[in-house]
Amino acid sequence: MEIPDPYLNIVKANYEGLEKREFDSDSLSRYFRGCFDETASYYHIYDAWACVECLRVGTRTMELGLKPQRCPRCSAPVFQIGTFQSRASRMGKAFEFAFMYLMSSHFGIELRHIGEKNKVFDFEYKDGVVIEAKGSPDYTVLPDGAHLRLKRAGMRRSDTKKKAFANAEDWKRRLTKGRFYIVTNANPSDLVEYQTDYVSGIYDITKKNQLDDFVRALTA
């Protein structure tokens, strides 16, 4: 199992905490949330905003957090300078590696991580059985400890859902008898027990019952 640093240290430390608790939905949520939080801290992935007008006249008006409608100093428009793309990429990898480590350490299931080599799925279990991982946090922790709520984690984000479904359709056209699973940490109610000709199942693996269902389906 090849997990690069710093993700390996992050997931190992959080998995040790998971092992010390009862293996249930609460501890699973804590495990993934801890991996997200420590990844954000390591890479300094924080939302921030700045006032260009203040900067123009030599005043450094910028703060962490979501931008207000107007600059509290000069009332000019302000701009968000935290990057969504940086957070999405790092958090996506944190979820992938946390999932991979959990499957290996708790269930003894070794997955082959495809990652950026393949844009259609993330993991291969065996020939014809693949997994797409779509996980992201619903909040981020700022350096002062404040929690900043984020919009539409995991499969609740419409762009993420469309991409996952498009990948599933693309892959099943190539291998019609294969199985394509989607795992996430946030799933809207309309996608619970969801199946189509392309999607073999969608599972919120922070829910123990869904994680168990996923393992049974995967290894069937």
Structure notes:
A hairpin with a 5-residue loop joins β7 and β8. This protein has two domains: 7-44 and 83-219, no CATH class; 48-80, no CATH class. The chain is of the alpha+beta class and 220 residues long. It is globular, with a radius of gyration of 19 Å. The strands form three sheets. The chain has a five-stranded mixed sheet with strand order 4-5-6-9-10, with helices on both faces. It has a three-stranded antiparallel sheet with strand order 2-1-3. Strands 7-8 form a two-stranded antiparallel ribbon. The longest helix has 24 residues, at 84-107. It has six helices and ten strands, in the order ααβαββαβββββαββα.
Spatial arrangement of strands, main beta sheet = 4-5-6-9-10
What is the strand tally? 10
Task: Note the run of SSEs as H and E.
Answer: HHEHEEHEEEEEHEEH
Q: What's the helical proportion of residues? A: 40-55%
Domains counted in the coordinates: how many?
2
